[in-house]
Each structure stands twice: as structure tokens, then as C-alpha cells.
Amino acid sequence: MTDESWSGWYRDARGSEAVVLTTDGQRLRVRVRGTDFEGDSFDALYPVVDSAPRSAGAGRAVAPLTDCVLEWDLPLPVLVAGTLRHATLGCLLSLRPDVPALHLALHVGGAVYESARAEGDFSAALATVRRALPDDIRLQTCSDCAFSGSFPAPGRALSGTLACFRGAKDAYRGAAAGEGGVPDLWDRRSGTVQEIWSCREFEASATEGTGADRREAVPLEHA
What we know:
Elements: E1 4-12, E2 15-23, E3 28-32, E4 35-39, E5 46-47, E6 68-80, E7 83-95, E8 101-108, E9 111-114, H1 122-132, E10 137-139, E11 148-150, E12 162-164, H2 169-176, E13 192-193
Antiparallel strand pairs: 1-2, 1-6, 2-3, 3-4, 4-5, 6-7, 6-10, 7-8, 8-9, 11-12, 12-13
């Protein structure tokens, strides 16, 4: 997958600065005040040790990015009455030490469709946005793809919890239709992906809903 970059802002008690968030659909990266942070989820972005300024201190290497706000916009493909259109998804994330608070706002066709102001993760926020959409508008994100499945573990991460089965499409179609067990395909997954990512191999699911909402849940012991 090709990297994609999203321009945005970082804010904390020391002030604000422009940042660029980069992802390949799986790993996330952002540079804040000279330090590169990287991780699989927005609430698990850790400093890349070699990039940390010498003044950061030894403890900086193990502390995730927290006590801050990240805000960015990203282009998002949507289907409007069967026609591909380009929308913008505004993301506002407060990385609090206890519980992150996320707000999404989809701008398409002059209208705005929003999640709640303090969603707990991207799957929940996208589900709220999806429920607000007119019947003829459908998202084209990994969370809406026929080849993705949610990881049904309690206390899931803020993002990056979707298993992708684009490498086993036919088998996964059959499993999702009840012709086999999804857990049997777990080892054939192509990894996990960000819920707001949009892959060139996207295929709309036959029914609304995502992950565990539309197909057999994958037991935790198979992860």
C-alpha cells in the first residue's frame, strides 16, 4: 500500500504546531517538536528513539503521545447514488490519559454528518456517522469493506483494529455468507488496517454494518 499524508495541527499545554500524519493503512507516523512518533493506533504512538532530541530525557522513549489534541482532515471517497465522489473527513482527537475523545465530521455535497463529540474509538465514531447518512450515500473506508472484520476483544484500541482479508477474498466471501468459519481464515489475514483507510481493493459489503456486526466474530484466542 502507498503512504498517504494528512495535514493537521497538534496542541498541548506548551502551544500548537502544524503536523503531518502519515500512514500506509497500518502504521501511523507523526513528527512533533522534532521527535518522530509511530504506532499501530492513534492512542499508541511512541517516540522513535533515534529521532528524539537529546534534551528529551531517557523517559521519553517509553512514553506514548498523550495529554494533547490532534486535528486533521483527510480526503475520503464516498458513493453518492452509485457515483464515486470525494468527501472530506474532519478528525478531532483529544488524547487524554484516561479515555481518548474522538469527533468525526464528514463533509460531502455541502452537508455535514457528525459523530458524537466524545466517541471512544474510530469504529464507533464511523458507525455514528454512517447512521446519519442518507440511504444513497455510502462510505468507502476499510470499515465498510467486504473483506474486513472487527477484532471483538474487550478494550480494543482506538484505531487499527480491523483485520483485512484482501488476500483471501473468495474464501472470506464464503465464510461471511455462512459457508465456513471465519476463525479458520484468521491465519490468512493480510494484517490489520486503520478504519479510516481506503484501499484500492475496496469492495462494498453486501449489507450495512461492519466487522462483528455483519459476520461471525473471531475468538480472542485466534488473534
